[in-house]
Amino acid sequence: MKTFTTKAVTAAILSSLSLSAAADLYQVEEIPTADNFRHSFPRDINAQNFVVGISRLPTDVDITKVSQRILDNLEIDSLESLTQEEREILIKALANEQLGIIGVEREQPQRVGINRAFYFDSALQSVEPIPPTGEEWADSSDSFFYSINNANSAVGYSTAPYELVEYTYTDSDGAEQSREYFISDFISRGVWFNNGEITQVTPPETEYLGGETALMDVNDSGLAAGYASTAVSPRAEERIAECTPEDEETIVTKPLQVCVWEIWFSLKNSTAGNIEPYTFSLYSRSNSGSFGANRSIYDVRGFLWQLGANGNVIGEPERLGTLMPRKEDDKNDFSSYAYTVNNNGIAGGQSWTYHPDLDAVKMPAIFMNGDALPITEDPKYRWGSVNDINDNNIATGYLAEVISSKLRTTSFVFDVNSKELTMLPGFFTGSSTVANAINTNGIVVGTGEIEASLSIRDRAAFMFDSTKEGAEFINLNNAISCEAPYNIIEANSINDSGVIVATALKPEEYTDSDGETQTRDVVVTLKLDPSAADGELNDCTEQENLVERQGASLGFGSLFGFISLGALISVFRRKSKINS
Fold first, then answer.
1. Is 257 helix (H, G, I), strand (E, B) or coil?
2. What is the model's pTM?
3. 129-145 per-residue burial string, b: 16 or more CB within 10 A, e: under 16
4. Cβ–Cβ < 8 Å for 332, 263
5. What is the DSSP letter of 241?
6. Helix, strand or coil for residue 70?
7. Is the per-residue pLDDT at 561 higher than 60?
8. Which of 124, 135, 488, 529 has the maximal Cβ count within 10 Å?
9. Closest residue by Cα to residue 563 from 63, 90, 56, 24
10. How far is it, in rounded angstroms, from Cα 104 to Cα 376?
11. DSSP string for residues in 519-531
């Protein structure tokens, strides 16, 4: 839920930059990025203007167990003489999002979590919901916050820290061999956070890898929406059986848990090959250009959990359905996901279903009384998601369809009460857009393509008044000072006071290994406050002496350089802004 009711006062002690002027619609304030992290990605803002999100790419990690052949493969001389650039390359290569180091038998010499949840009120807190214990490795888990309600409770999920184990087997010559592998207790746990207190939500199914849960949203009464593993899929059971062959002479070189994890990892990074490639999309794989299917070894279902004031689950959670039942011949995981819930208890998200021509696809779903209800059954739509729903029961998200011979995403608003679906216009005909949030005033925010003539289209954050007839998309870069050093690429959430939290690129100077000053783009979190800047739209393209906004040529696909090591979308498996 991204709808709020009280007027907020901007915290004066922000490490911020005030860029309001008479002609600007918004005052811009930059929220500090967490220490030891390069980038900051916001996810939600509440009535008090508290912000939650994800810090990404740690700049200083204890890298101790890395062999020389790993360094050789990455063209790094030694750990003792690491340059800043080499350290970053190594950290990315060791990230949990990677299967291993290509070229060295997929060896994973260390596990590094490169995502950390953050919580901002008057100061920024970097939160590790599930810290390592015992033999578990420090800095080996990833954590994410996605929502914060008016009680200042944040929800999200965390992976488990990894532990190094030794596995011994006998080779074909009868010699004993040993290998080291990293294992963890579970894939993920939904987490709740408030005032330093943390609780976890466990799934019904935990076989093999400990299961997975995530909390994606929480309303003001503590009703949390998310998903959880409920069973091992039939196809996964077949593949897992191959990890322990019946032939006793077959040499097994890895533990069962590692073999199963590799199956899960490949499914998580699978793509939807049955629909058209979606080049330069926020939701496409950087290599394949296809929607991320984000499958699992588990059947997953959307859930609603009632959480108490201390974050503990009260009563039995409500298990949500799928848009259609699984076909008898479909052995893949068949799942639904709840990404948002309003104060009326109506949830929205995504569900696997069947297209008449394309077979299994993920489509937007509204969840009421446990049932999954479609927002459309028009076969021209091939993919989509509900990303948010306000307290007037108006949902927003995106649908994918072929426009001008290309698969594009189009934002929508859907009235749950009247069942009316309205597609939003975009910046131009054929502009791919994704709506992320809607407040109770009907203001929609998200991201969209802004250059029709480019092969790799630039994109920008947008705001759109869905209640105003003939309304147009507003590029939020034109709503702030033209001298601002930001390129705002995505609006992530909006509260009822109209305060927006957004993702932007900003140039940053640094000194390279040769002592030379270089410039690079970093991702920062911005808060855009309309109460502090009463003005009108600018047209920054016509301003003289314009400060060039760095990253202006960033297209949908290029954002992966900041958001992912190939596919952050698959890692987050979150509301469709990250999941698809």
1. helix
2. 0.89
3. bbebeeebbebbbbbbb
4. no
5. H
6. helix
7. no
8. 488
9. 56
10. 48
11. EEEEEEEEEEEGG
